[in-house]
Amino acid sequence: MLYRAVMVSKAQVDLGVGALNGELGSVLACCMKASTDRQMTGALVWDYGWFMEELEGEREVLEAFWHGIAGDPRHADPQRLEFVPLLKRRYQTWSVGTSRRGPANHALIKTLRRNVPTAGEVRTHVRTVIASGLVAESPPLVCVARA
Question: Do residues 4 and 56 touch, judged by C-beta distance below 8 A?
Fold first, then answer.
């Protein structure tokens, strides 16, 4: 059965200019490989010192991914805001983006400074950023029915 997970964490890597050539680029490459290898779809956004992610996939795969983030020193205070069953995928790829290439959600950034935002706020922000600030995207996921 498919599930959706929404997560946020405080980035413990440089997110500034040129960061894609450093540890941030390594994090993104690892996430893209893990997502495509495990048939996860969704999007990761980095903004103002935070990682925000909406993922779709099988329950066991998402649980394993979550435990990996929870133990990764590149993420501080990881929060899983939502973990719910889905009838179908919203995403066909795994994407990454940042609002530096599009409109910023200043209300969400203020919320992040005070406390943890809601899953709905994060989903909306991730979808808005990916629509306008896409940096990279995996090939579309193709599911084959097995006889």
Answer: yes
CA-wise closest residue to 53 among 114, 107, 100, 117 = 117
pLDDT digits (tens, 9 = 90+) for 30-83: 778 888 888 999 999 888 788 899 999 999 999 999 998 888 898 889 999 999
**Residue 127 to residue 43: CA distance in whole angstroms:** 8
DSSP 24-66: HHHHHHHHHHHHHHTT-EEEEEEETTEEEEEEEEEHHHHHHHH
Residues in the chain: 147
CATH top-level class of 2-137: alpha beta
Secondary structure of residue 134 in the 3-state scheme: strand
Residues 140, 93 contacting (CB under 8 angstroms):
yes
CB atoms closer than 10 angstroms to residue 96 = 26
Q: For residue 118, what is the DSSP state? A: P
Q: Would you list the domain boundaries of the chain?
A: 2-137
Q: Give SS3 for 13.
A: coil
CA distance 17 to 105: 20
* Gap between the terminal Cα atoms of the chain: 18
